[in-house]
Automatic annotation (TrEMBL):
One of its GO terms (molecular function) is GTP binding. The lineage of its organism: Eukaryota, Viridiplantae, Streptophyta, Embryophyta, Tracheophyta. Gene3D superfamilies: P-loop containing nucleotide triphosphate hydrolases (3.40.50.300). It holds the Pfam family Ras. Keywords: Nucleotide-binding. This is Septum-promoting GTP-binding protein 1. The keyword Zinc does not apply. The keyword Transmembrane helix does not apply.
Amino acid sequence: MPQFCREAGHSTTLPRRFQHRVSVIRRCLLRVIQRFVICSGGKLTDDTCRMLPPHAGLSPPPSPMAFSGDASHEALPISLPPSVFHNHVLDPDLVSLKITLLGDCQIGKTSFLVKYVGDEQEQQGKGLNQMDKILDVRGARISYCLWEVQGDGKSEEQIPMACKDSVAILIMFDLTSRCTLNSVLGWYKKARKWNQTAIPVLIGTKFDEFIQLPIDLQWTIASQARAYAKAVNATLFFSSATYNINVNKIFKFITAKLFDLPWTVERNLTVGEPIIDF
């Protein structure tokens, strides 16, 4: 009898293992077929593959950029900015908006982008870095196409292409380097030459290092930054990519401005704290 039970148990285990393996193989085949069908829908280029959402054909995961004030998950009508362009060939429902980052080199622009976007693959070109961030805004799927001009002398020729059609231009400087702060007005003028409608935002990086400076120097730099922001009619943020200070808040601010969402940022002018001024 025990031998019969062992044989019976063994006979039921084999079909289960077989069904499990068949299930795994079936899922793999379906995934390959899905990728083949998606990529066969149009001409395959590097830009096309880069623009594919991470889960094409599936309902998008909830985005960390969703605003807490939105009680309904239903699609609501939103007015799109005039610079909207649909370059997601394989996902026509995805609205692409371009945001440009300008500033001197070695001030933390790339670290800022990586902190916001995550582990997405960066697309590098001559003097340009590009990354994408997909989020939901009141039921609409939005892709922020983030263009970073590297900031050295050779990359300035990329400014016209980087600024054209942008809905927001982030002009960045290193809070611990006065010379990079002195450069922001020049970057602003170069950007406005090619784009007069984008939302300007002035961003000081490396706030975690800035607060180690003497308090009187902090006050001097903060006062100069506020004066420059007022001169170009830009909102000023102090940020830190290392500690994720004001990084997401900056893009929430831009999203709220673009889509007229009921979200406001609180002003903070306290020296020694991450300043927000507008």
